[in-house]
Amino acid sequence: MFMLDISNLWNGLSLPDLLGCEPELFDVHRQLLDNFDDRFADWTWQKSTAPNVVIQQLRDAASRIRHTSDSLVVVGTDEATLGIRPPLELVRGCRHNDNTAKPRIYFTGNDVSSRDFRELLNILDDRDFSVCFITHAGTTLESALAYRSLKWKLTAKYGEREALSRIYVFTEENKGHLFHRMQEQGVTVFGTPRSLCGRFSVLSACGLLPLMVAGVDVMELLQGAENLYEQTKLASFDNPTWLYCAGRRLLWAQNRPVELWACPEQRALTLGTFWQRLFADVPGPMVFPTLHNRDTQLADHRSNVFETCLWMEEPEDPVMVEATWDNTDPFSFLEGRSFDAIARAAMDGRVEWHSNLDIPAFLLECGQPNAHTVGEILHFLEFSAVLWSAWLGYDPFTTKSIPESRRSMLKILDAPGSC
Predict the structure, then answer these.
(1) 318 with 339: CB under 8 angstroms?
(2) How do residues 168-215 score in pLDDT, each as one tens digit?
(3) For residue 233, how many other CB atoms are within 10 A of its CB?
(4) Do β-strands 71-75 and 129-134 pair in parallel, antiparallel, or remain unpaired?
(5) Measured between alpha carbons, how far is 215 from 38 in angstroms, rounded to an integer?
(6) CA distances (Å), 105 to each of 64, 99, 131, 417, in order?
(7) Are strands 3-5 and 361-365 parallel, antiparallel or unpaired?
């Protein structure tokens, strides 16, 4: 069960301050649900609203991939792929590719590093693989070059006809030529709205196909999103996104520009990175993901930070501290306790100590890291990011323009004007 605990914020905030945010939040929230409804629905798929035809097409595609491939390479920028990693690693673990019972999932297309890409190509030499390409129009340099190289490798390995049958593309349907060109080539193509293929794409077709291939129960993922969506429709502080955004805004106004995001689970670090990315495009506190035991230099004796701590329930088969006879360490008093109980003590100790240092903290109790819970977390995050952006006067669905640094790069490379 997802729950946001703000009891550790009161050393930095007051209840009147929090309630003072209500009028502005109410107006922004109403605008999001009323005026942005069509665009909002593009990325708020739940179990009851996901298009049945598309879900069946995704299932068929995932079945073909699992039947023909032991690996799937997901090609896209970090905007397109970063949201896929948290549910993958939270549900299946950060060592999911070591489990050969399910297809391995690899990600590329966010840089042009020869070393990294050569490492991937060498791995694929001994793999039967398929490619999932996520792009607005095929014009992002890094992912376009990665796709070009992987298509060449597929063709060299399987021949042109089978190579095309192993490619799955998600691109904008109504603009540009890529969608129709891919269809003409015989590639499996899924059309996406303009607001997708980016940071809000994980709970849409773009994110669901790789997760289906990896064995994540995507219908439970969407059910979790739907459960939390009912809460995020509430125009009150019973809505956890209101609590999070209001607390965040007030702490930022107190000159706390740094949000430390912490979780004792290694498998949650990609969620922290995704969290950071969701809030990176608009003003506000910068999110820094950390493991709970790596925060000393960042937090101790600093007054310009606050924290968001994520906690997951103990698994059904926890690892226990074993008894030993040789006393090689001083921790015999922990024998018979679970690793998770010790991790919880470390987290609680962190929050208590930092509270003494006047460092406020949000605490997110998330239950077991199964598909349902992860769906709740993802929807909470995406809705919070949209609410935050709209509250500060930014359109959360606007596609970013090309940065000037990218234009300078293209000029150095003698790119034609069409780029």
Answers:
(1) yes
(2) 998 877 665 777 787 778 899 988 766 554 567 788 888 899 999 999
(3) 12
(4) parallel
(5) 30
(6) 15, 11, 10, 36
(7) antiparallel
Tell me the pLDDT tens digit for each residue of 109-134.
988 889 999 999 999 999 999 999 99
Residue type at 353 in one-letter notation: W
Angle at the Cα of 400 from the Cα atoms of 108 and 247, rounded to 5 degrees: 95
Question: How many Cβ atoms are within 10 Å of 338's Cβ, its own excluded?
Answer: 16
For 7, residues 6+ apart whose C-beta sits below 8 A from its C-beta are: 363
- Token pair of 129, please? 């693989």
pTM of the model: 0.90
